[in-house]
Amino acid sequence: MRRQFVPAVAMMLAFTVLCGLLYPLAITGLAQIGFSGAANGSIAERDGQAIGSTLLGQPFSEPGYFWPRPSAAGDGYDGAASGASNLGPSNPELAKQVRTRAAAYRSANGLASDALVPADAVTASGSGLDPHISIANARLQAERVAEERGLDVAAVRTLIDANTDGRALGLLGEPGVNVLQLNLALDAAG
Questions:
Q1: Beta bridge mates, 50
Q2: 89 three-class SS
Q3: Quick one: which of 4, 13, 25, 125 has the most CB atoms within 10 Å?
Q4: Which pLDDT score, from 0 to 100, does residue 56 have?
Q5: SS3 label, residue 3
Q6: 156 with 165: CB under 8 angstroms?
């Protein structure tokens, strides 16, 4: 038994050092060298103070800011409780939530009671922490934000365009507007 026990323990220790220490250190080092911003959480700062991550949705509810997608993560935008509501399309509770959110969205943005509302304005993403909204969603909010801030709508739309991320690798997904970056640009514009 000893003949098998000693090599087994030695292999366990060797693989623990290799897989549990050396490999993570090597990957962390490569990430810090090649992608330090993303490796450190893509932290957004204002006046040298960390205010959030551009990779995670954050709550904004003031009329002078662009609003993100609704969140189903915990009590809302809780990174420790990331997850979807798991309500299917035929679930009456989801239909009720969508109707309520759509009515509130239309009212807040001065839209007609039968105006189409982008799906991302009334449904949470799979993680509940999506940092992006669709371009259509941002453009529908532009007039409200411009009016509240006393800015020209064209200037706000220019900020939307400047904060729109393209498709991943040029072909995957849809372009989206990063809400935190857009709201920071709004604050910088005045």
A1: 45
A2: coil
A3: 125
A4: 83
A5: helix
A6: no
Give the separation between CA 2 and CA 66, rounded to whole angstroms. Answer: 67
E-strand ranges in the chain read 43-46, 49-53, 132-133, 164-165, 176-178
Name the DSSP letter for residue 76: T
The dihedrals phi and psi of 44, each to the nearest 5 degrees, come to -95, 140
Amino acid at residue number 137: N
Q: How would you class 78 by CB atoms within 10 Å of its CB: exposed for 0-12, middle for 13-18, buried for 19 or more?
A: middle
Which residue type is seen at 166? G
Return per-residue pLDDT of the chain as tens, 190 residues. 788 999 999 999 999 999 999 999 999 999 999 888 878 878 888 888 888 888 888 888 899 999 999 988 777 777 777 777 788 889 899 899 999 999 999 999 999 999 999 999 999 887 878 899 999 999 999 999 999 999 999 999 999 999 999 888 888 989 999 999 999 999 988 7
For residues 156 and 139, what is the distance between their CA atoms, to the nearest angstrom?
Answer: 9
Query: Helix or strand or coil: residue 38?
Result: helix
Q: What is the DSSP string of 108-140?
A: HTT--TT----GGGTS--SSS---EE-HHHHHH
CA–CA distance, 138 with 140 (Å, rounded to integer)? 5
The structure tokens listed for 31 are 């990430």
